[in-house]
Design goal:
single chain; Rossmann fold; D-amino Acid Aminotransferase, Chain A, domain 1; eight-stranded mixed β-sheet; 29 helices
Length: 894
Amino acid sequence: MDRHYLNPLFSPRSVVVFAGNENDPASQVSYGRQIAEQLRNGGYTGPVRFLDIGMTGTLSELAEAKFDLAIIALPHDQLTAALEVAARIESKAALIVSSGVDAKLAAQLHAVARQHGIYLLGPNCMGFQRPKLSLNASALGPIAQSGGLALVSQSGAVSSSILDWAVKNGVGFSAVVALGPNTSVDISQVLDFLADDRSTQSIVVYLEGIRNARRFMSSLRAAANAKPVFVLKAGRKPAGSTAALTHSGAIVGSDDVFDAALQRAGAVRVRTFVQLFTAAKGLSARNLPVGKRLAVISNGGGPGVLAADWADELGLEMVALEPDAAAALAPELSPLASLQSVIDLGEEAEPGHYRAAIKACAKAHNVDGVLVILSPKPELDTAAVAQALADIHPDVGKPLLTCWMGDERAAAARQILSRATIPTYRTPEAAVDAFHNIASFHQNQQLLHQTPPPLSPQLANPDLEGARILVESVLTERRKVLTEMESKALLSAFHIPVTKTILARSASEAILVANQLGYPVALKIDSPDITHKSDVHGVALNLQNAAAVRDTWQDMMATVARLRPDARINGVTIQNMSGKPQGRELYIGVTSDEPFGPVISFGAGGTMIELIADRAIELPPLNQFLAQRLIDRARCVETLGNWRGATPAHRESLEQILLRVSEMVCALPQLKQMDINPVIVDANGSLVVDARIVIDHAPHGADNFPHLAILPYPSEREQEWPMRGGGHYAVRPIRPGDAQMLQDFVRRMSPESRYFRFVSTMRELSVKMLAKFTLIDYDREMALVAMYRERTPTEDGGFTETERIIGVSRYVTNPDQNTCEFSLAIADEFNGQGLGSRMMLSIMDVARSKGLSQIEGLVLTNNAPMLKLMRSLEFDVRKYEEDPDFRLCVRSLQ
């Protein structure tokens, strides 16, 4: 069960080809002739059989052969018949290379594939290449050079362009997949495969659209956790929506949300086609940076300054050698060299000078990457410098990027650098761009490892029942926009501090309320039909007495009636002024995106919010790290410190409101848009002055959070159980921070137990395996760990408590989305205490709650204790036809 389900498609052991009658070339389509020629002469070593759908009497023979992959390149009217034949000869995967197939025929082909359990890539797909296998099953031209970069593109034209570019730039590929608009195997499944593919070291994606945000985020997170992923997204939409009922809905565009989603998934976004090329070239380097500190080596001041300017624009840190390192390097360079922020080797630079400077930067602890710039000089052998870099490259241990400026005199040098897999660019800005893209990968990995729960454990529990009753009562009245009073009541249910607000329906009531609250007060029109109160002069501030309240009431009602005669008016709300003269006006918003669902935005607030357009965006759920990062990314963060005589603002209170908003988004799928504007923060805390909330009926789904693109940490699965003989242990879902404890758990296992679990003699988990086992997507898999607290006596008579993992149960959903595969491991010293039964029952409960119908797993035939446990839990223990050393254990979850 270790083979990926798409192996028959992308790593087939045998291929059958439907490309028409080779004796009648006129009956073949051009794709068919091209693919047939490539498979005959391309060097693929597996069995290849060419068939015509009109054949007779050979199906029984072919069924015995069981070809993994069927490649179909035929006229449209023959595609369905060919796919049916592929099913009858038990092909596990199929590729249809075609164009112009309409949606009706595509749906028919998908139905045939589903009926027979075939993984179908296509139709309207240009195919794929697997250079390491010498398999060119595409209409993209000659097969690419072999390498570690995978390209996934939803455009065949983009794929062929990148392949053509890669030839001259020496970039090799592990896989090239050109998806089309009607393919059954989609981009999420391809990313799943590439995440596990050992020959793929990094991934570049050209994306035009996605079908399912949850699946896309799940697969993208899994891929980015295993290797760098860079994405170019086409088809950006204009920011904002004319139908938005809140400020945040107006200023947050779908492209902003896509940006936030990619960052949260640990991937890196590139903005232009050129940047996609530079990122692809940068990924061909052997090493990736762990920070944003760049050292620049140049033989001229101007190009170095250009690099420095662009690095500053992108937020990179230009670093110089530390004084000791600079002093040691200086004697090896020309007397004219300068070792300031840019290492300028001077006009007399030669290969030895470059070599010495690169060695110094490679040893420097404050340098994460090195950019070498060369400007052609009359007596400088640019090829010799390039060869010096090629010789030293294996020992650098950090990203080494180059910029060979010029054209004719740089051609030979660029070839040398490309052969040595050293990325080279024509301009300093492009080189700095490339470093920024690959350095951003490390930063986004921090976001990938955040797994917040739906409710913040450090905050008091909200009144969820009261909040839901309020929302449902508004929907029952067939309203979608909450009044200000209702909006603030909903915020209060989540313990968000709001100004005390009372509705008055007459001028006399307004005076009584204002006298009761105390002056100064603010008056605001209350209407479900008026989105922005200021637009109709529906806000009055700092009213100091009863006469001002009476006059303002009358003026406001008259003005609103004149400007919006159609609007329903509930009255006017009266509230105290915030009492924060040094407060900063900020906004916190929620808007819903298609397809990523709700997003949380933060920025500068007030009446000019759309004009200022200061926004930072994050996908829920949030934890404190994500809330802090969200605040730091907004331009208004500079006002939260010492600002024009005001003392620093109370950031923690702002973070708590963001966490509370995240709770609202997770708990209330009906929440579609929300404006908290302004929220006023000063040194004493934060206070919400105004709020507007838009709701609608909730989507339906298999879990509690069908509206979220990222599933929260399932804290509701945390349980405590007694242990035989005394004591207790806790069972909870695994977290990314459990990596070291999981490694210790594996190291403590006996060699026999490790072999039973991993079918390997390994003594510990690799870094990649640890990441894969601890950073999981709770939507499609679950790992439960049993946590045990050990008490160790200390010399002073006390005790120290340490927590350790003593058991792990896990399931992963199978591609059919209906069944799952399990695994189980228990610490040797805790065997026989009922821990295995409890961990299996717990993981089965989770799988059952996800709607899965069956759980299965492989157990070694000689693992008698595990087989005994399986039978005690009513598993059906069967022979495993593919390997007699295993037994297949299966149980229904219904």
